[in-house]
Design goal:
single chain, 366 residues, Glutaredoxin, Jelly Rolls, 2 domains, eleven-stranded antiparallel β-sheet, six-stranded mixed β-sheet, 17 strands
């Protein structure tokens, strides 16, 4: 399975969820399982020595190196992540809560950070993100995708549940299935002989980027800005791959279309602004709009301004802009630019960069 295909699968999970969220109450339990990736009853998953793949980590954060042998007797929760993935960010409050609640009752939660973008391989970027996200459980750095391959994994996020004998007993892919996940943890901890687990579940009140998506209103799927996987690019003449060019925005954009204005170089993973005052325009339908972006050069910053339907966002501004739409990109990460109040409708988003040197990677919605 190629890396591009695995990333498309992640996009499919989020898109499928958005498409049929309104039918959630009418779906059978088997259909819901397919929505979040295939699940199987405890004991039916292959083990194949997958936990031993932890030995392939290139580095560890928050912990000395951990091994399958050293974890024997513990229940282990493996969480595949990459720090700019909105789907993973929305599951993080639950993983964080489980790690804290059950850490003294035999659970070891381990994040496996397998990067999607090249800048996510930078250990200092990951270290900063882990600190900002208040993640204090062990993080295995999987820059070579060795642990990913050891688990035959294909998704961000992905949870694997390992019993005290080192056997994978369950997995869940994508967002959701939180109650089922905690029941699985409680079952495995009880099997391991840890008493007093009970059946009470964590209460999570997620805010900011970590808040659940508004699935009923979400009609815009994730879209990449580099030429390798972008869709619906609408600037006249199309994109010139790896070539500096001046682009323009057409008079009208259809829903899900996007365009560039100004002097840009469209690269494989990212599109980079060569001169100040370049713009990206996107027609979308969602409560939230995020952009994975940041200065192309470390230690620099890029000022920007956001408009929605040609006006400052006001109460529709996201965490990383003010009511006038002003913000500054200081690092490569996911920026929340729009979180609009109801009613949700088709909107035209525009971001103008007042400085050159920004690298834009992907739009995500919620």
């Amino acid at each position: 399975m190629t890396r591009a295909m695995t990333q498309d699968r992640r996009r499919f999970l989020a898109t499928a969820a958005a498409t049929i969220a309104g039918l959630e109450l009418a779906m059978s339990s088997s259909t819901k399982s397919l929505l979040h990736g295939m699940t199987a009853p405890a004991g039916e998953l292959p083990v194949d020595g997958a936990l031993s793949a932890l030995g392939s980590a290139t580095q560890w954060l928050n912990s000395p190196p951990l091994s399958a042998a050293g974890l024997r007797g513990k229940v282990v929760l493996i969480d595949f992540c990459t720090y700019t993935c909105i789907n993973w960010l929305r599951t993080l409050p639950y993983v964080r809560a489980w790690a804290e609640k059950y850490k003294d009752q035999g659970l070891v939660a381990i994040g496996v950070h397998t990067p999607e973008f090249a800048f996510e391989k930078d250990i200092e970027n990951v270290r900063r993100a882990v600190k900002d996200m208040r993640v204090d459980y062990p993080i295995a750095i999987d820059n070579d995708y060795a642990i990913w391959r050891g688990f035959s994994n294909q998704y961000w996020p992905a949870l694997y549940f390992v019993d005290a004998q080192g056997q994978i007993r369950q997995h869940y892919f994508g967002e959701g299935e939180y109650e089922e996940s905690e029941v699985t943890l409680q079952q495995l901890l009880a099997e391991a002989g840890h008493g007093g687990i009970g059946h009470e579940q964590v209460s999570v009140d997620a805010h900011g980027i970590e808040a659940p998506a508004d699935w009923d209103s979400l009609q815009s799927p994730e879209n990449y800005v580099g030429y390798e996987r972008t869709e619906n690019f609408a600037s006249p003449g199309g994109a010139a791959s790896d070539t500096r060019r001046v682009y323009a925005v057409p008079a009208r954009l259809k829903l899900k279309q996007w365009a560039l204005s100004g002097d840009w170089t469209v690269g494989k993973q990212a599109t980079v602004l060569n001169k100040a005052n370049g713009r990206i325009v996107y027609r979308f339908h969602a409560r939230d709009l995020h952009l994975v972006m940041g200065p192309a050069a470390r230690g620099t910053s890029v000022r920007f301004r956001v408009l929605i339907d040609g006006q400052p966002p006001g109460p529709a501004h996201g965490l990383d802009v003010d009511e006038q739409g002003n913000g500054t990109a200081t690092e490569q990460r996911l920026y929340q630019l729009i979180r609009q109040p109801k009613p949700i409708a088709d909107r035209q988003f525009e971001i103008a960069f007042l400085d050159s040197g920004v690298a834009a990677f992907a739009f995500t919605f919620g």
